[in-house]
Amino acid sequence: MRILMINKFLYHNGGSETYVLKLGEYLQKEGHEVQYFGMDHDGRCVGNRVNAYTADMDFHGGSKLSKLTYPFKTIYSSEARRKIRCVLDDFQPDVCHLNNFNYQLTPSIILEIVKWRKQMGKKCRIVYTAHDGQLVCPNHMLRNPNTRANCEKCLDGHFSHCIRNKCIHGSTAKSVIGAMEAFFWKAVGVYRNIDVVICCSDFMKKELSANPQLNGRLTTLHNFIDAPAVAGPDAVKGDYVLYFGRYSEEKGIETLIEACRQLPDIPFVFAGKGDYADRLRELSNVTDAGFVTGEPLAKLIREAWFSVCPSVCFENCPFSVMESLAAGTPVVGANIGGIPELIDDGKTGNLFESGNPESLAQAIRTLWNNKEKLNTYAEQCRNIQHHAAKSYVEELLPIYAGGG
């Protein structure tokens, strides 16, 4: 099968890029032919045979001319249509697998795929993996960045909420553009051309079901991970609780910092980077390991008594929870978004009230003081049949073929 992976970033940039690159790599190992379409970039690590990509769009820099033209290019891109047509004509894909494409590539590429398959008489499937709420929320996070509150107002299809609340970077101008983009493509009905929308959680499936253009096209398929080596029952645990990920507000870092203050006798290790690094240095019971990847991170996860996922935003299917459980390490997670779908409360970890530092501190204290329970949780984690790439692709291929 020939699969064209489409994502605006073709380099390691975040969770969706990890998904795209790992999935493409595994599909190729299974004998499928995979090419990629997205923006060109110095860090681009995958591509297509005809070297057709859109120009890199830097919304935070660039020339004065580019800043004037960006608002139009974020809604519709004739360049993206031309470039993807070159790839379609050369590669002749059986499936176009969309990932993050709004604003940089724009939904105009869907129109070109539809035009191409009609002209060529192809039965090329259009599959989309929803890594966020972009198809129902112009700022994609279902969260108002100004009030720092989760928001579902645009689920009613009236995207003017985005303008009134300045939901995109706190800017009226950018929010107008985001709302225009959403209104325009809603009027065009472009998303009706997607054959299947893969939601990474039941929570995201519920949110996207607010878009009537997606009716009958939504299915849930939790993300896969490369499971690290699982610590055995006799493994020596480090004397710490672990947080790993971005040090950012929406990840609940403020909630966790306050919980750390309330638990001065419990040692914490943070692994990541972000705006709150300076705040961590104020806490005597916190060690900041900085940004860690690969085996050093896997070791930190395996040897933690448990990890914490304190998000205050609507997480979809956080890799940090999956990676921790796969390593045999229980998780204390916020009861928000798709997190409760991953944690079996009272068996592989515990849930707490999102945004409530007292609730989090109590959950951490309860587990820290009961190592016997933690060992039982860890055993349950080791028995989980994790969603590895092999089983994920076994469920994905029927979707590609038209049976899902």
Molecular structure report:
The chain has helices spanning 15-29, 64-73, 78-91, 108-120, 160-164, 172-188, 202-208, 253-262, 277-280, 294-303, 319-326, 357-368, 371-382, 389-401, and strands spanning 2-6, 33-37, 95-98, 125-130, 143-144, 149-150, 196-199, 218-220, 241-247, 268-274, 286-290, 306-309, 331-334, 349-352. By secondary structure, it is α/β, with parallel strands linked by helices. It folds into two domains: 2-224 and 389-401, Rossmann fold; 241-382, Rossmann fold (3-Layer(aba) Sandwich). The protein has a six-stranded parallel β-sheet with strand order 2-1-3-4-7-8, with helices on both faces. Strands 11-10-9-12-13-14 form a six-stranded parallel β-sheet, with helices on both faces. Strands 5-6 form a two-stranded antiparallel ribbon. Helix 3 (78-91) packs parallel to helix 4 and helix 8 packs across helix 12. The chain is globular and about 65 Å long. The two termini are 16 Å apart. The model has no long low-confidence stretch (mean pLDDT 92).
Characteristic key phrases:
2 domains; alpha/beta; single chain; six-stranded parallel sheet; about 400 residues; globular; Rossmann fold
SSE blueprint and pairings:
Elements: E1 2-6, H1 15-29, E2 33-37, H2 64-73, H3 78-91, E3 95-98, H4 108-120, E4 125-130, E5 143-144, E6 149-150, H5 160-164, H6 172-188, E7 196-199, H7 202-208, E8 218-220, E9 241-247, H8 253-262, E10 268-274, H9 277-280, E11 286-290, H10 294-303, E12 306-309, H11 319-326, E13 331-334, E14 349-352, H12 357-368, H13 371-382, H14 389-401
Parallel strand pairs: 1-2, 1-3, 3-4, 4-7, 7-8, 9-10, 9-12, 10-11, 12-13, 13-14
Antiparallel strand pairs: 5-6
